[in-house]
Amino acid sequence: MVARRPLVAGNWKMYGTASEAAALARALKERLAGVESVDVVVAPPYTALHAVRPVLQHTGIVLAAQNVHWAAKGAFTGEIAAPMLQEAGCGAAIVGHSERRQLFGETDDTVRGRVRACLDHGLMPILCVGETLAERDASRTLDVVRGQLDAALDGLTPEQVLRVVLAYEPVWAIGTGRTATPAQAEEIHAFLRARIGTSFGAPVSHHSRILYGGSVKPDNIDDLMAQPDIDGALVGGASLKAEDFDRIVRFRGLTPRP
What we know:
alpha/beta, TIM Barrel
């Protein structure tokens, strides 16, 4: 069977002017030269995409957006459409991030629309799912992530699902310094993989990449990546430091997933 290729994505959130983002991209370009067995994605703020794009050309590092609208054009003040992102050099977009869900009213319906927009316009969606602390404490984790996953992938073909990268991000572990233990993360990753298999078949389940996102740091990446169903990481704060992100990309035991 074909191995799952690890993927590490850096979400720079609302940090960095265009010049600062370009400087970070240059540092990553230098540090990550020669890394060939991991797919690397970075998602600067919208206003920095144009500055980062030329720096990353011919590096293999994929430029991504932090969000995307579900319509290709229209009267949606302040929004960015997939064709615009594609023209700006993006190859991927983060969809359904917990901060979008928690702070900006993102719903399962809008997430599904954004996933479809990515697929319709040649962008790789990085689809985020995850539970809050209250939901975990109420033993609702599996129900929550199942509902988010099913809603986002509803109506897609198996071939389309294979183009989606899934990211499990426990909301209670984002920006808090808390991290799900490797065993906790693996439990949810295995559940999500099994759910994909139930809905779209075992081959799709086997080949689907599932990232962990939640206070990923250089000192916990090795244990996380040792888990059989964790195929990479969606990195927040640590992706803003070239040295830390480099260490995460170069996790110990760097081999394709089985």
